[in-house]
UniProtKB/TrEMBL annotation:
InterPro entries: NEUT/ALK_ceramidase_N. Pfam families: Ceramidase_alk (PF04734). This is Neutral/alkaline non-lysosomal ceramidase N-terminal domain-containing protein. Residues 42-256 form the Neutral/alkaline non-lysosomal ceramidase N-terminal domain.
Length: 443
């Protein structure tokens, strides 16, 4: 039964569906800089948490403005959120926004001396922000409704280009691209948005490798932060926007501050706009955020039935290869020696939110893989997210291994891994669609 928006929506649906959201800034102390190559802060990194409860299961989704999340930090964040929000840790799903302009939080045993002290200061700042955001989400819990919509935004471009020496990084207007914007809107029963989840296939890397005129590198939430910030300003205090990076392994921002260029003969070069490139972050963020708002305004929310929230964890074995010893060794080539390395385990997590599903993986899938899942999913309202519950570098599609792209070379996965993972995702989605799995079960 379709339930109209309004104060009686929850009662009419026969359930009490609750939602709350919170966000906190990650306060890296000024005394820590320089850290991990960064000299100062351009804009604040944030941690965002949305909490959902259908009366049977409670699920927490968190997005942290980091490039990636190592296992040690992931476990700590899941524990903190689980304890603060009374959520089973297996029902806590955490993603990195994948901004390229954030210091890494390395495992504590990896560093020593001053580097270890600075790393610990950043780690504590991240954990404090996540914990407080979760507490805010609990305080904001109230009867709520869900809805889904999809739009289109031209803020990304395929980054694989053919140079005189082989395939490399750049901007290919004719290459495969997923420009769809998936939006989940979470409203209270008065129709006020509690949270918007934005799923879009683009790396948050407008400022990647760009430096200021004096040579400094600045911390920034980049495109993801600009887009979510735009949405939150449009709706005002109380609304939290979370950016879930899609299958963006080959999807770069349409314009970048430090850009790859080609001349008429296919020769490569780099050009940095320095501080002038900061405007690109704001403009592209505004474009993506405005489309998310436009889509959100057209979403009709309803209360999902009891028992339709679930988090399903599964995994699949995929072919592996030896990753490059150093990224500095990579360059365009027409002859790359892929070296098989047995198999690797690829975790998959599926989050069901009523008739909406989110399929998440650690690896950076390419856009064609994400499109394949969405086009063949039994759920019309399907999102694909990467950098979920950890990070595992690129998992390019088979064609990229044949072309010898950057993503294929810079991977611990071998040709065929992406196709194996997408098949597993679709098999899991069909299983979930046909049976009301309980949270945390393994199909």
């Amino acid at each position: 039964m379709t339930v109209p928006n309004g104060p009686l929506a929850v009662e009419a649906a026969g359930t009490t569906f609750l939602a709350g959201a919170g966000k906190r800034g990650i306060g890296i102390p000024a005394s820590v800089y320089p850290v991990d190559g960064f000299t100062a802060e351009r804009d604040r990194l944030r941690a965002r948490v949305v909490l959902l409860d259908d009366g049977t299961h409670r699920v927490a989704l968190a997005v942290v403005d980091l490039t990636s999340v190592f296992d040690e930090l992931l476990d700590e964040m899941k524990h903190l959120i689980g304890r603060a929000a009374d959520v089973a840790e297996e029902n806590v799903v955490i993603a990195a926004s994948h901004t390229f302009c954030a210091p890494h939080v390395f495992p504590t045993a990896r560093l020593n001396g001053e580097a270890a002290a600075k790393n610990e200061a950043v780690r504590q700042a991240v954990l404090a922000a996540v914990h407080r955001a979760a507490e805010d989400a609990v305080r904001q819990l109230r009867p709520a409704r869900l809805g889904f919509g999809r739009g289109v935004c031209h803020a990304n471009v395929n980054r694989n280009v053919l140079t005189a020496d082989g395939w490399w990084l750049g901007a290919d207007e004719s290459g495969p691209c997923d420009r769809s914007v998936g939006v989940v809107r979470v409203d209270d029963t008065e129709g006020r948005p509690i949270a918007l989840l934005i799923n879009y296939a683009v790396q948050s890397s407008v400022l990647h490798e760009s430096v200021t005129q004096d040579g400094g590198r600045l911390v920034s939430a980049d495109l993801a932060g600009a887009a979510t910030g735009h949405v939150e300003r449009q709706y005002g205090e109380g609304t939290v926007a979370l950016f879930l990076i899609g299958a963006a392994g080959d999807q770069a921002p349409y314009l970048t501050a430090n850009r790859h260029t080609l001349d008429r003969d296919g020769a490569r070069a780099r050009t940095d706009a320095h501080e002038a490139g900061h405007l690109l972050v704001d403009l592209l963020g505004e474009r993506l955020g405005a489309e998310a708002v436009r889509v959100g305004e057209g979403i009709r929310t309803t209360a999902p039935a009891e028992g339709t929230l679930a988090v399903i964890h599964t995994h699949v074995e995929v072919p592996a290869q030896v990753p490059p010893a150093s990224l500095s060794d990579l360059r365009p080539t027409r002859d790359y020696p892929y070296r098989p390395n047995g198999t690797a385990d690829a975790p998959v997590v599926v989050v069901r939110l009523g008739d909406i599903v989110l399929a998440g993986v650690q690896a950076e899938l390419s856009s064609t893989s994400g499109l394949h899942v969405k086009e063949n999913s039994p759920f019309p309202n399907t999102m694909v997210a990467t950098m979920v519950d950890g990070a595992a570098k690129y998992m390019a599609d088979a064609r990229d291994y044949d072309r010898i792209t950057y993503g294929a070379m810079n991977s611990r996965y071998a040709k065929g891994a992406a196709e194996t993972v997408t098949a597993k995702i679709l098999d899991t989605l069909h299983t979930v669609h046909n049976k009301p799995w309980q949270g945390g079960s393994r199909p």
